[in-house]
Design a protein that fits this description.
Elements: E1 11-14, E2 18-24, E3 36-41, E4 46-50, E5 53-54, E6 60-63, E7 69-73, E8 77-83, H1 90-101, H2 104-121, H3 131-139, H4 150-161, H5 169-176, H6 180-191, H7 195-206, H8 217-223, H9 229-240, H10 244-249, E9 255-258
Parallel strand pairs: 1-9
Antiparallel strand pairs: 1-2, 2-8, 3-6, 3-8, 4-5, 4-7
């Protein structure tokens, strides 16, 4: 009798503003993601190292965007919730980090576990969630949307919707009616990160949509906007701490749910 392959329980919900990932960490290497990360241990504990200093073993850890870090877990599978920082005011993310480090952390960890179980058994319909619904389920209430300058918001929307496009700062400045220097200053003031780093992160984030597929890496690199395989591999290792091949190998049994409809666009306007 041919045995059936059991589901691994590894899954990912990805939308333009949030990611909910439950799966393998891979080897502990330094990564510098552009997202606001919340790591949650499903079993045992985890340890996060930032700037050479390790936090004590805990069941939940928060890492701000663009901070180099490594994560080691007692259990090979962890949950990681990613918030795109341009969608929530910076002060609110700081408050959320404090909440999670305090008494509210246990309640949020319990909700994260319930979301994982709900998606895994089909009780939740992740592909139909709005950002506000996701936040309500995970954090107990929707996070306040961040209001960007309309010119920056338009650029962010283009980069999010078409990360594979070769959009330069000069192109974006022209479309917003600003000089390039003024556009770059405004973009960083509004988002907290320079245009080039933001664009690089959105392009690397786009990779997540394809990690459980059998693809030619050279073709994939070009399809998602990288000039060649070398730039592709370097960027992915910087943001995720793993080579593309390692990511794809560890994601073969990953169930991906894409939440594209009913996006809360007011979060970036």
């Amino acid at each position: 009798m041919k045995s059936e392959r059991r589901p691994s329980g590894h899954l990912m919900l990805i939308s333009p503003q949030r990611v909910f990932y439950a799966g393998l960490l891979g080897r502990p290497r330094g990564k510098t993601s552009g997202g606001f990360h919340i790591y949650c241990a499903l079993e045992g504990s985890l340890t996060v190292t930032r700037d050479g200093r390790s936090d004590r073993a805990t069941t939940m850890a928060v890492v701000p965007p663009y901070v180099s870090h490594t994560v080691v877990s007692d259990h090979p599978t962890v949950v990681c919730v990613i918030i795109e920082p341009e969608t929530v005011p910076s002060a609110d993310l700081a408050v959320l980090a404090s909440r999670l480090a305090g008494p509210d952390g246990a309640a949020v960890r319990q909700r994260i576990g319930a979301v994982y179980d709900g998606i895994r058994v089909g009780a939740l319909r992740p592909a139909e969630m709005t950002t506000a619904e996701f936040d309500r389920i995970v954090f107990g209430a929707p996070l306040r949307p961040r209001h960007l300058d309309p010119r920056v918001a338009a650029t962010v929307a283009r980069l999010v919707e078409n990360p594979e496009r070769a959009m330069t700062a000069q192109d974006c400045a022209r479309e917003t009616g600003l000089s390039q220097s003024r556009f770059l200053h405004l973009f960083k003031d509004e988002t907290g990160v320079c245009f080039r780093a933001f664009r690089a992160w959105k392009r690397a984030r786009h990779l997540l949509h394809f990690v459980n597929e059998d693809l030619n890496f050279a073709h994939l690199a070009q399809d998602i906007g990288y000039p060649d395989s070398t730039h592709f591999s370097h960027s992915i290792r910087r943001f995720y701490g793993l080579k593309p091949r390692a990511i794809f190998t560890g994601s073969r049994d990953l169930a991906i749910y894409r939440s594209e409809p009913r996006v809360d666009r007011q979060a970036v306007h």
